[in-house]
Write a structure and sequence with these properties.
Layout (H helix, E strand, L loop, with lengths): L1 H26 L11 H23 L17 E2 L2 H4 L2 E2 L21 E2 L1 H18 L2 E6 L4 H10 L20 E7 L28 H16 L3 E3 L2 E6 L16
Parallel strand pairs: 2-4
Antiparallel strand pairs: 1-3, 4-5, 5-7, 6-7
Length: about 260
């Protein structure tokens, strides 16, 4: 009887020890993992938790998409002169500082004109190429009203710049400033640079060498033949005065 009682007490102590030991292991289970999971399930759940945290971090640090730049829509009342398709060279002076104001007036150099002007410029380009092997180079085309204001702000002198309130033929898309180039794209000598404001730039100035006079006569003759009118003081300026459009403040986009 004493032996049986002894074994019973020993069994009770062993059972109590096992219960206490199991409870301690359960309390030490990793945070966020169910006590009933095995080792494989625990690793799987940790991977899911980590992936979830990484995804949240990635989403929170992703830059906001502000949208793509809208495609430019050119109004149908304007035609762009592009060298690749016309052969007409462009040197838009007011898109840089190589002009009489020494300031940048346009954000970038593009040439827009009214459809009638574009059609005539293409005919002139064709005539010059077929007759002489020459071509056109454009210095200025359509000038938005805000740009005319910037031009006036830079040089507020009506002897050189048309006051914005009056408006320029450039701001109607009916005027161009240009010269003639040879087959290599070199400017013909017209006696003065573009935007030279002096007596020598006048059409009636004749104290030039014969070759310069010949070039000045040619540019005036070919432009007037196609319906453009000149102004007395600028050999480079021509406009269609038989057409009428309002002043425009539309401005083109830049890349």
């Amino acid at each position: 009887m004493r032996r049986i009682g002894f074994f019973v007490r020993i069994s009770n102590w062993v059972l109590l020890f096992l219960v206490v030991f199991a409870g301690c292991k359960m309390e030490k289970s990793p945070s966020g993992i169910s006590d009933g999971m095995n080792a494989k399930d625990s690793l799987t759940q940790l991977d899911k938790n980590t992936a979830s945290e990484e995804t949240e971090d990635k989403v929170s640090t992703e830059p906001i998409n502000e949208g793509k730049k809208k495609k430019e829509v050119i109004p149908p009342q304007w035609k762009e002169i592009v060298t690749d398709s016309t052969g007409i060279l462009l040197d838009i002076k007011y898109a840089g500082t190589d002009n009489f104001t020494k300031k940048k007036i346009y954000p970038c150099g593009r040439c827009f004109v009214r459809p009638e002007v574009a059609e005539k410029l293409l005919l002139i380009q064709k005539d010059l190429k077929e007759r002489y092997g020459f071509g056109l180079k454009l210095f200025d085309c359509y000038r938005p009203a805000p740009a005319q204001q910037r031009l006036w702000d830079a040089v507020p002198d009506p002897d050189y710049v048309t006051p914005p309130a009056k408006g320029s033929m450039h701001s109607k898309g009916l005027a161009v400033d240009l010269t003639i180039v040879d087959k290599n794209g070199n400017d013909l000598n017209m006696g003065t640079p573009y935007d030279f404001f002096g007596r020598e730039a006048h059409h009636d100035y004749e104290d030039f060498a014969a070759d310069i006079q010949k070039n000045r006569v040619l540019i005036k003759k070919v432009m007037e033949l196609h319906g453009f009118n000149s102004i007395r003081t600028e050999w480079w300026h021509y406009s269609l005065t038989k057409k009428s459009y309002p002043l425009s403040d539309w401005e083109w986009q830049c890349d």
